[in-house]
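This follows on from our talk about sequence and fold. Can you supply me with one protein entry, sequence and fold together? Could you add the entry underneath, on a fresh line?
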Amino acid sequence: MNKVLLVTGGSRGIGAATALLAAQQGWAVAVNYTANSLAADEVVRQIRAAGGQAMSVQADVADEAQVLRMFAHIDAKFGRLTGLVNNAGVVDVAARVDEMSVARWKRMFDINVIGSLICAREAVRRMSTRHGGEGGSIVNVSSAAARLGSPGQYVDYAAAKGAIDAFTIGLSKEVAAEGIRVNAVRPGLIDTDIHASGGLPNRVKDLQHLVPAQRGGTAEEVAEAIVWLLSDSASYTTMSFLDVSGGR
């Protein structure tokens, strides 16, 4: 079976680490980005320099038309998709629920939830034996926030990731007999620049004392879990949640 992988939000952080590691393990990788083409192209360059196959592909996952165009590009260049990592996501500035706007919530759910659903729908249409596919694997990037709730900071983000958890359970049961495995990873405090985008660049250092392991994690540590779930080594693993959170 061809190993063709799409990593959404693949230009930085966990997405970039996943793309690089998957390429080392034989996947042809489509590196999705929304706006930062230079960062995506750098990930592609590194993969190709190491002898792997990669392409960058632009799409805002919250925009259905852009997602359809992205999948068409991948179909044309690499063929039928067999792996999807739903990694694209956003946070917002730390705030209480009574300080948040509806516009913020709509953005949060459009990207973090609806975007993942659109990408998963298109992946199933290509992977499912019901649609002539050979099977495949979907890994949703959730968050420990789905269990913790993120009070006083990101309750809306936690709620969006809780939706991803429920989606993972339902979709995994729906397509298990069609050759598709669906799992999720739940990263904890990971040292990436997503925290700076939410106005808390020192969040990992400030909160690592709450983690039993007494440190933040790395994007590469999360990537190891994702790529294992994608792989044939996880062939009997579906509807699973792998917490990469240092015990938090």
